[in-house]
Amino acid sequence: MTHYLDFEKPLAEIEGKAEELRALARKNEEMHVEDEAAALDRKAEDLLKDLYKKLTPWRKCQVARHPDRPHCKDYIEALFTEYTPLAGDRGFADDHAVMGGLARFNDRPVVVIGHEKGNDTQSRIERNFGMARPEGYRKAIRLMEMADKFGLPVITLVDTPGAYPGKGAEERGQSEAIARSTEKCLQIGVPLVTVIIGEGGSGGAVAFATANRVAMLEHSVYSVISPEGCASILWKDAEKMREAAEALRLTAQDLLKLGVADKVIPEPLGGAHRAREEAIAAVGTNIAALLQEMDGMKPAELVKARRQKFLAMGSKGLAA
User: Fold this and answer.
1) Which single residue of 162, 211, 220, 283 could bond 202 by disulfide (Cβ 3.0 to 4.6 Å)?
2) In the predicted model, is pLDDT for residue 130 greater than 80?
Protein backbone atom coordinates (compact mmCIF):
# COMPACT_ATOMS: atom_id res chain seq x y z
CA MET A 1 0.00 0.00 0.00
CA THR A 2 1.38 3.40 -1.03
CA HIS A 3 1.55 6.06 1.68
CA TYR A 4 0.78 9.52 0.27
CA LEU A 5 1.96 12.74 1.87
CA ASP A 6 -0.44 15.66 2.38
CA PHE A 7 0.72 17.52 -0.72
CA GLU A 8 0.40 14.32 -2.79
CA LYS A 9 -3.40 13.99 -2.33
CA PRO A 10 -4.22 15.00 -5.93
CA LEU A 11 -1.74 12.36 -7.10
CA ALA A 12 -3.38 9.77 -4.83
CA GLU A 13 -6.77 10.45 -6.46
CA ILE A 14 -5.45 9.97 -10.01
CA GLU A 15 -3.45 6.83 -9.21
CA GLY A 16 -6.41 5.50 -7.23
CA LYS A 17 -8.74 5.92 -10.20
CA ALA A 18 -6.29 4.12 -12.50
CA GLU A 19 -6.10 1.22 -10.06
CA GLU A 20 -9.90 1.10 -9.72
CA LEU A 21 -10.25 0.77 -13.49
CA ARG A 22 -7.72 -2.06 -13.61
CA ALA A 23 -9.42 -3.79 -10.68
CA LEU A 24 -12.76 -3.68 -12.53
CA ALA A 25 -11.10 -5.10 -15.64
CA ARG A 26 -9.66 -7.98 -13.64
CA LYS A 27 -13.16 -8.85 -12.45
CA ASN A 28 -14.73 -8.49 -15.89
CA GLU A 29 -12.53 -9.57 -18.80
CA GLU A 30 -14.90 -7.97 -21.31
CA MET A 31 -14.05 -4.51 -20.04
CA HIS A 32 -11.29 -2.72 -21.97
CA VAL A 33 -9.94 0.07 -19.81
CA GLU A 34 -6.21 0.00 -20.53
CA ASP A 35 -6.29 3.14 -22.69
CA GLU A 36 -8.11 5.13 -20.00
CA ALA A 37 -5.83 3.74 -17.27
CA ALA A 38 -2.72 4.54 -19.33
CA ALA A 39 -3.97 8.12 -19.81
CA LEU A 40 -4.38 8.44 -16.04
CA ASP A 41 -0.87 7.03 -15.56
CA ARG A 42 0.53 9.73 -17.85
CA LYS A 43 -1.41 12.40 -16.00
CA ALA A 44 -0.12 11.07 -12.67
CA GLU A 45 3.47 11.10 -13.91
CA ASP A 46 3.17 14.69 -15.12
CA LEU A 47 1.69 15.72 -11.78
CA LEU A 48 4.44 13.89 -9.90
CA LYS A 49 7.06 15.79 -11.91
CA ASP A 50 5.34 19.08 -11.12
CA LEU A 51 5.07 18.31 -7.41
CA TYR A 52 8.73 17.33 -7.06
CA LYS A 53 10.15 19.93 -9.46
CA LYS A 54 10.65 22.46 -6.69
CA LEU A 55 9.75 21.14 -3.26
CA THR A 56 9.60 23.64 -0.42
CA PRO A 57 11.89 22.95 2.57
CA TRP A 58 8.91 21.80 4.63
CA ARG A 59 7.80 19.36 1.94
CA LYS A 60 11.36 18.04 1.78
CA CYS A 61 11.10 17.37 5.52
CA GLN A 62 7.95 15.38 4.87
CA VAL A 63 9.64 13.35 2.12
CA ALA A 64 12.71 12.76 4.33
CA ARG A 65 10.40 11.31 7.00
CA HIS A 66 8.33 9.16 4.63
CA PRO A 67 7.64 5.80 6.34
CA ASP A 68 8.43 3.82 3.18
CA ARG A 69 11.81 5.45 2.63
CA PRO A 70 14.74 2.98 2.75
CA HIS A 71 16.30 2.87 6.19
CA CYS A 72 19.76 1.95 7.45
CA LYS A 73 18.96 -1.76 7.66
CA ASP A 74 17.84 -1.76 4.00
CA TYR A 75 21.09 -0.15 2.86
CA ILE A 76 23.23 -2.54 4.88
CA GLU A 77 21.39 -5.60 3.55
CA ALA A 78 21.66 -4.39 -0.08
CA LEU A 79 25.13 -2.83 -0.23
CA PHE A 80 27.23 -4.76 2.26
CA THR A 81 28.23 -8.41 2.46
CA GLU A 82 29.38 -10.50 5.43
CA TYR A 83 27.77 -7.97 7.78
CA THR A 84 28.54 -8.96 11.37
CA PRO A 85 26.62 -6.80 13.86
CA LEU A 86 28.41 -5.83 17.06
CA ALA A 87 26.27 -5.06 20.07
CA GLY A 88 26.53 -2.97 23.20
CA ASP A 89 28.73 -0.23 24.59
CA ARG A 90 30.54 -2.52 27.08
CA GLY A 91 29.20 -0.31 29.84
CA PHE A 92 25.40 -0.27 30.07
CA ALA A 93 23.33 -1.78 27.24
CA ASP A 94 22.81 -2.29 23.54
CA ASP A 95 20.91 0.58 21.93
CA HIS A 96 18.76 -0.75 19.08
CA ALA A 97 18.40 2.74 17.58
CA VAL A 98 22.03 2.39 16.46
CA MET A 99 23.16 -0.57 14.39
CA GLY A 100 26.71 -1.24 13.29
CA GLY A 101 29.41 -3.78 12.80
CA LEU A 102 32.02 -5.23 10.48
CA ALA A 103 31.19 -5.80 6.82
CA ARG A 104 32.54 -5.78 3.30
CA PHE A 105 31.71 -3.01 0.86
CA ASN A 106 32.66 -3.91 -2.72
CA ASP A 107 34.71 -6.69 -1.10
CA ARG A 108 36.62 -4.13 0.99
CA PRO A 109 36.54 -4.60 4.79
CA VAL A 110 34.80 -1.67 6.49
CA VAL A 111 32.93 -0.68 9.61
CA VAL A 112 29.37 0.53 9.01
CA ILE A 113 27.31 2.43 11.60
CA GLY A 114 23.85 3.95 11.30
CA HIS A 115 20.58 5.04 12.87
CA GLU A 116 17.70 2.64 12.33
CA LYS A 117 14.10 3.90 12.72
CA GLY A 118 12.23 0.65 12.10
CA ASN A 119 9.52 0.00 9.52
CA ASP A 120 6.43 -0.99 11.50
CA THR A 121 4.97 -0.24 14.92
CA GLN A 122 6.84 -2.99 16.75
CA SER A 123 10.23 -2.30 15.18
CA ARG A 124 9.84 1.47 15.57
CA ILE A 125 9.26 1.07 19.29
CA GLU A 126 12.19 -1.33 19.56
CA ARG A 127 14.42 1.10 17.63
CA ASN A 128 13.08 4.11 19.57
CA PHE A 129 12.22 5.76 16.22
CA GLY A 130 15.93 6.18 15.46
CA MET A 131 16.58 8.34 18.54
CA ALA A 132 19.79 7.08 20.11
CA ARG A 133 20.55 6.98 23.80
CA PRO A 134 24.04 7.48 25.29
CA GLU A 135 24.84 3.78 24.97
CA GLY A 136 24.18 4.04 21.23
CA TYR A 137 26.81 6.74 20.81
CA ARG A 138 29.21 4.84 23.06
CA LYS A 139 28.70 1.76 20.88
CA ALA A 140 29.56 3.90 17.84
CA ILE A 141 32.71 5.14 19.62
CA ARG A 142 33.73 1.53 20.31
CA LEU A 143 33.26 0.60 16.65
CA MET A 144 35.19 3.64 15.42
CA GLU A 145 38.08 2.79 17.76
CA MET A 146 38.09 -0.74 16.34
CA ALA A 147 38.10 0.61 12.79
CA ASP A 148 41.01 2.92 13.63
CA LYS A 149 42.98 0.08 15.21
CA PHE A 150 42.63 -2.19 12.17
CA GLY A 151 42.74 0.49 9.47
CA LEU A 152 39.17 0.00 8.26
CA PRO A 153 37.20 2.80 6.54
CA VAL A 154 34.08 3.90 8.42
CA ILE A 155 30.75 4.46 6.65
CA THR A 156 27.93 6.07 8.62
CA LEU A 157 24.28 6.28 7.57
CA VAL A 158 22.41 9.07 9.33
CA ASP A 159 18.64 9.05 9.78
CA THR A 160 17.46 10.44 13.11
CA PRO A 161 15.11 13.17 14.31
CA GLY A 162 17.68 13.75 17.08
CA ALA A 163 19.18 12.12 20.13
CA TYR A 164 16.67 10.79 22.66
CA PRO A 165 15.85 13.54 25.22
CA GLY A 166 14.43 11.28 27.94
CA LYS A 167 15.26 11.52 31.64
CA GLY A 168 17.24 8.27 31.72
CA ALA A 169 19.34 9.30 28.73
CA GLU A 170 20.19 12.61 30.35
CA GLU A 171 21.08 10.86 33.62
CA ARG A 172 23.49 8.58 31.76
CA GLY A 173 25.28 11.51 30.08
CA GLN A 174 23.61 12.08 26.72
CA SER A 175 25.43 15.31 25.87
CA GLU A 176 28.80 13.87 26.95
CA ALA A 177 28.27 10.77 24.79
CA ILE A 178 27.38 12.89 21.75
CA ALA A 179 30.44 15.09 22.30
CA ARG A 180 32.72 12.06 22.68
CA SER A 181 31.35 10.49 19.52
CA THR A 182 31.89 13.74 17.58
CA GLU A 183 35.42 13.93 19.01
CA LYS A 184 36.12 10.34 17.98
CA CYS A 185 35.01 11.14 14.41
CA LEU A 186 37.68 13.85 14.34
CA GLN A 187 40.39 11.60 15.78
CA ILE A 188 40.31 8.39 13.75
CA GLY A 189 42.99 8.02 11.08
CA VAL A 190 40.84 6.17 8.55
CA PRO A 191 38.51 7.42 5.79
CA LEU A 192 35.12 8.43 7.19
CA VAL A 193 32.16 8.81 4.80
CA THR A 194 28.68 9.85 5.90
CA VAL A 195 25.42 9.73 3.97
CA ILE A 196 22.34 11.53 5.29
CA ILE A 197 19.66 9.12 4.06
CA GLY A 198 16.64 10.79 5.70
CA GLU A 199 16.69 13.15 8.66
CA GLY A 200 19.88 14.57 10.10
CA GLY A 201 18.68 15.94 13.40
CA SER A 202 20.90 18.10 15.62
CA GLY A 203 23.84 16.73 17.61
CA GLY A 204 22.39 13.25 17.28
CA ALA A 205 23.38 13.40 13.60
CA VAL A 206 26.61 15.39 13.99
CA ALA A 207 27.95 12.64 16.29
CA PHE A 208 28.08 10.33 13.24
CA ALA A 209 28.56 12.93 10.51
CA THR A 210 31.79 14.72 11.42
CA ALA A 211 33.32 13.04 8.39
CA ASN A 212 35.84 13.54 5.60
CA ARG A 213 32.99 13.41 3.10
CA VAL A 214 29.32 14.13 3.81
CA ALA A 215 26.78 13.21 1.12
CA MET A 216 23.06 13.88 1.31
CA LEU A 217 20.23 12.29 -0.60
CA GLU A 218 18.37 14.85 -2.69
CA HIS A 219 15.33 15.03 -0.41
CA SER A 220 17.09 14.50 2.93
CA VAL A 221 17.39 17.25 5.55
CA TYR A 222 20.09 18.17 8.06
CA SER A 223 19.57 20.81 10.73
CA VAL A 224 20.36 21.93 14.26
CA ILE A 225 16.73 21.44 15.31
CA SER A 226 13.49 20.18 13.80
CA PRO A 227 11.25 22.79 12.16
CA GLU A 228 8.55 22.06 14.76
CA GLY A 229 11.01 22.53 17.63
CA CYS A 230 12.39 25.72 16.11
CA ALA A 231 8.87 27.14 15.64
CA SER A 232 7.94 26.28 19.22
CA ILE A 233 10.97 28.16 20.55
CA LEU A 234 10.94 31.21 18.25
CA TRP A 235 7.22 31.75 17.73
CA LYS A 236 5.74 29.67 20.57
CA ASP A 237 3.72 27.96 17.87
CA ALA A 238 4.70 24.59 16.37
CA GLU A 239 2.30 25.25 13.46
CA LYS A 240 4.81 27.75 12.07
CA MET A 241 7.06 24.84 11.07
CA ARG A 242 6.90 25.87 7.40
CA GLU A 243 8.45 29.26 8.15
CA ALA A 244 11.02 27.57 10.41
CA ALA A 245 11.98 25.08 7.69
CA GLU A 246 12.62 27.99 5.30
CA ALA A 247 14.78 29.82 7.86
CA LEU A 248 16.84 26.77 8.90
CA ARG A 249 18.28 26.19 5.40
CA LEU A 250 18.14 22.47 6.03
CA THR A 251 17.83 21.11 2.49
CA ALA A 252 20.63 19.22 0.76
CA GLN A 253 20.83 21.94 -1.88
CA ASP A 254 21.26 24.73 0.69
CA LEU A 255 23.83 22.76 2.66
CA LEU A 256 25.85 22.01 -0.46
CA LYS A 257 26.08 25.76 -1.10
CA LEU A 258 27.10 26.36 2.53
CA GLY A 259 29.81 23.70 2.39
CA VAL A 260 28.20 21.49 5.05
CA ALA A 261 27.48 18.78 2.47
CA ASP A 262 30.03 17.71 -0.12
CA LYS A 263 27.66 15.97 -2.52
CA VAL A 264 23.95 15.68 -3.26
CA ILE A 265 22.83 12.24 -4.45
CA PRO A 266 19.86 12.45 -6.87
CA GLU A 267 16.76 10.46 -5.91
CA PRO A 268 14.29 8.74 -8.24
CA LEU A 269 11.29 10.83 -9.30
CA GLY A 270 8.93 11.03 -6.34
CA GLY A 271 11.58 10.26 -3.74
CA ALA A 272 13.62 7.25 -2.63
CA HIS A 273 10.49 5.45 -1.38
CA ARG A 274 9.07 5.18 -4.94
CA ALA A 275 12.10 3.32 -6.32
CA ARG A 276 13.93 1.90 -3.34
CA GLU A 277 16.39 -0.32 -5.22
CA GLU A 278 17.40 2.52 -7.53
CA ALA A 279 17.95 4.89 -4.59
CA ILE A 280 20.00 2.33 -2.65
CA ALA A 281 22.15 1.61 -5.71
CA ALA A 282 22.84 5.34 -6.16
CA VAL A 283 24.00 5.61 -2.56
CA GLY A 284 26.33 2.64 -3.05
CA THR A 285 27.84 4.16 -6.19
CA ASN A 286 28.49 7.46 -4.43
CA ILE A 287 29.99 5.86 -1.32
CA ALA A 288 32.43 3.99 -3.56
CA ALA A 289 33.39 7.22 -5.36
CA LEU A 290 33.88 9.14 -2.11
CA LEU A 291 36.06 6.39 -0.63
CA GLN A 292 38.13 6.31 -3.81
CA GLU A 293 38.86 10.04 -3.41
CA MET A 294 40.72 9.21 -0.19
CA ASP A 295 42.66 6.19 -1.44
CA GLY A 296 46.34 6.52 -0.61
CA MET A 297 45.88 9.20 2.05
CA LYS A 298 47.85 8.57 5.25
CA PRO A 299 46.15 8.60 8.69
CA ALA A 300 47.64 11.99 9.63
CA GLU A 301 46.47 13.46 6.31
CA LEU A 302 42.93 12.17 6.81
CA VAL A 303 42.73 13.63 10.33
CA LYS A 304 44.15 16.98 9.23
CA ALA A 305 41.87 17.25 6.20
CA ARG A 306 38.82 16.41 8.31
CA ARG A 307 39.74 18.98 10.94
CA GLN A 308 40.40 21.70 8.35
CA LYS A 309 37.10 20.92 6.62
CA PHE A 310 35.13 21.74 9.75
CA LEU A 311 37.24 24.71 10.77
CA ALA A 312 36.64 26.26 7.35
CA MET A 313 32.93 25.51 7.39
CA GLY A 314 31.97 28.39 9.69
CA SER A 315 33.78 31.01 7.67
CA LYS A 316 32.18 29.77 4.44
CA GLY A 317 28.78 29.79 6.07
CA LEU A 318 29.21 33.36 7.30
CA ALA A 319 30.37 34.49 3.87
CA ALA A 320 27.27 32.94 2.29
Assistant:
1) 162
2) yes
